[in-house]
Amino acid sequence: MSIVKNIFIFPKRLLSVQNQIREQKTFLHEYLHPFLSKYHKKNDGSLTEYDFEKITNYYGVGSPVLAGEGIANLLNVKVGIRERKTLTLMAAITGLFDDFFDRSYESPDRIKGLMSLSPETLPQNAHERLFCDLVQEILLISPNKKRLYEFAERVFEAQVESLKQKDPNTKWDDLFSITYKKGGESLLFYRCSFSTEISLQEIECLLKIGGLIQVCNDIFDVNKDIKEGIRTVATETKDIKTLKNKVQKLYKETFDFCRLAIPTKNMNVFLQQIKIIVSQSFVALDFYQKTQKSNGDNFTPKKYPRESLICDMGKKKHLFQASYYWIFN
């Protein structure tokens, strides 16, 4: 797509996303906040304020807007009330599910039992009860439970594989593959919010786009992942320039593949939505590159203060930089 065309498209795409964010925030307040209120009141300490923040802001807004609305664009459908409920509930369980592997150290068998609402695996704390309640709500409104179970199983297997991220012997290329697979399977899971049949071409595209999104998310999560002892392609890279080149190549290959696999206007609109995430990740990489240059030859994030690892996308200069990347890439 030409730069001139991008200049005209970008304001429209940005305005559309801003409207989607407002709509999703309103929906969260009306639909999910009442659901969460009892867990605020009867929290045994297993749910942190950050858990609630992820549910009502980080995942709760970002995933339904960028992934959900993007998929809706691809399918040329509107996000109706059922789809919005399902997307919101899926976003709500995302952080809770990740924490089973990253923080609580539950056994894979127990996590699977909680996922399937097995009567033999009863929730033991507020974290697990909230997760099971949300899963139950998803099952009640899911348009295709068979597909939901199939794709949830794939996410589970990818998460089990991601336990290798805590192993100091796991190589960088393996970390990349683990991250990429987890992201792809997660995006396919969100696709279950929509009742339309899914083609093999769409599955291939969503796996690649989801992988790209997960790599970009890990770029933003460097500080959090270091605190939680999680090794990612971003925390373990020695040179930010090398990582940026890798992400730029992945971005180009992903978009080129998707445009060839599904050569439609709807795919272009979907990719425009996803490009917002990619553009912001490039800004974060530039931010880290400055940190690297200021502190030595190699990128050593464990030695840096928190402020050197937090790229605030609320700052005007960062928003401008992201806009530049969206238009000129």
- The count of β-strands is 0
Supply the number of helical segments.
Answer: 12
Poorly predicted segments = none
Spatial gap, N to C terminus: 9 Å
Q: On the 0-100 scale, what is the average pLDDT?
A: 95
Rg measurement, Å: 19 Å
**CATH class identity:** Mainly Alpha
Instruction: Spell the H/E element sequence.
Output: HHHHHHHHHHHH
| Major sheet | none
Based on secondary structure, the structural category is mainly alpha
Silhouette:
globular
Helix content: over 70%
Q: Strand fraction band?
A: under 5%
CATH level-3 fold name: Farnesyl Diphosphate Synthase
**CATH architectural type:** Orthogonal Bundle
Structural write-up:
- The structure is a single chain.
- With 329 residues, this protein is an all-alpha fold.
- The protein has a single domain, classed as Farnesyl Diphosphate Synthase (Orthogonal Bundle), CATH 1.10.600.
- The chain contains 12 helices and no strands.
- It has helices at residues 3-41, 49-75, 81-102, 108-115, 126-141, 145-162, 172-191, 200-220, 222-227, 240-261, 265-295, 316-328.
- It starts with a helix and ends with a helix.
Task: List the main descriptive attributes of the protein structure presented here.
single chain, 329 residues, mainly alpha, globular, 74% helix, Farnesyl Diphosphate Synthase
Task: Sum this structure up briefly.
The chain has helices spanning 3-41, 49-75, 81-102, 108-115, 126-141, 145-162, 172-191, 200-220, 222-227, 240-261, 265-295, 316-328. It is mostly helical and 329 residues long.
